[in-house]
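Query protein
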Amino acid sequence: MDQLRAMEIFIEVARQRSFSEAGRRLGLTRAMVSKHILQLEDKLQARLLHRSTREVSLTDAGQAYLAPCMATVVQSQEAARALSQATQAGAELAGPLRIQAPSSFGSEWLADAVARFSLPHPQLSPLLYVDDALLDPIEHGFDLTIRVGGIPDVHALAMRPLAPCRGVLCASPAYLARHGVPQTPQDLHQHRCLHFSHLTDGTQWHFARGEERQSVRVQAAFTANNGLVLQQAAQRGLGIVYNTTFLAWRALLEGTLVPVLADWELPLNHLSALYPASRQPSAKVRALIDFLVAEYQPVPPWDRELATSGLLALT
């Protein structure tokens, strides 16, 4: 028996409380998961899990074993990482690199970054899939996923922050000339609002100014699942768009869009790099993440441009 592998499987079963779900996330059948757990229990001479038709739960022995088990697995992974970094430090990056990203960020920023990253590595073959659907990176076989906002499962995915993702309300000068400039969040009730369908709270938009908080349920005059579509509609004068600075920056600099309610802050999200936690990231995945961190930290270039022009106050 590979005891370390069995320990990894035990940890995932404890997290998921299910043999089947643990197997799905680890790429194993339920029978193979059960076999590893039985072998581990036999090795330890202790019953680690209560099994029922509805749920798996830890026994007292399993509860006591879980923390030192996790520490052992982490220590082993760190040792493997150190060895891998030492042996691959001078290795050429090669082969496919499957990346998924939101369509707007992928088109506006990531495609260029991946192209520049790939130039010194002619044997590397990036596959960039841009889509605003919240796809499961493990199920779809991505090596690296760029995600705005929350992580769907912190146990199955490891994360590295890349950059802040700031929201901004904006509209065209022509729209504001026709309909007036809102002075408070509540004024949005009287305006046409352009809504991004993947926002966590739907059409409930949240605002903060100092200690003050307001939330407004807007009436969406136009809804899309793509930020670029909404931005183009706003530039045509259709309404006020809930945008991100990484997409709106150029339009704001050129004046085709102007900020709305600029003295109010929208919730701060983050761009993160996600990869499967169950396996050691390859040298090419680590290298790309390091490249993107260097590109986007401490201040991403789109926010730096806006701050230089006085259109964004960095806090």
In short: The CA atoms of residues 183 and 261 lie 6 Å apart.
